[in-house]
Amino acid sequence: MYFTRSGSAEDYYAPGTYIKISMSKTITLGVEVVEEPSVPQTALEKIQELGTKAD
Fold this sequence. Notes:
Blueprint: E1 18-23, E2 28-34, H1 41-50
Antiparallel strand pairs: 1-2
């Protein structure tokens, strides 16, 4: 999944922020900042293995 965020620097997420996105096939329905313990273990393992940046 790819998404963009526009606005000024204060609108951007800080490195290490975990976000939960609700979406349909075409649009984002909601974005929520979550704490690391709320992130599923499988997702955390993928983030650690693959990182968060696209190639």
